[in-house]
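Human:
I keep going back and forth on a fold encoding question. Comparing notes only helps if you start from a blank page. Show me how you would write down a chain together with its backbone fold. Write it directly below this note and I will take it from there.

Assistant:
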Amino acid sequence: MMRAQVAGSAAGPEGRRGSADQRSATPNPARGEASLPIAGRPFLLRPSFAVLVAAEDDLGSLFALVERAADGRLRLSELATLFWHCLADRGELTRDQVGEAVMDQGLAGCAAPLRALLGQILRGRA
């Protein structure tokens, strides 16, 4: 299962609590990390190998996802699913809640975190 951390969430997907440092972690752009506001709190998006494999199981080929994004054909459900999988510690957050956060931010507000995640997928670790 995926291991995660979130700025502000109490428990990870396995029910473990992260340290205060992990919950309030600042995104590291060099690692493709980003932040997404959900319900007024910043949540860390961290695209690890395990997370991206799980996302690929739900979304299909990540390369095709990047191509759809580049062509302007990325669906809201795909965006929310990618963000949900990449949450470093999603706690009790559902995909629907992440989808609502995407709607709250609008596509323009989600462009920066999406760009960071897709860039990491394409670049890999430097």
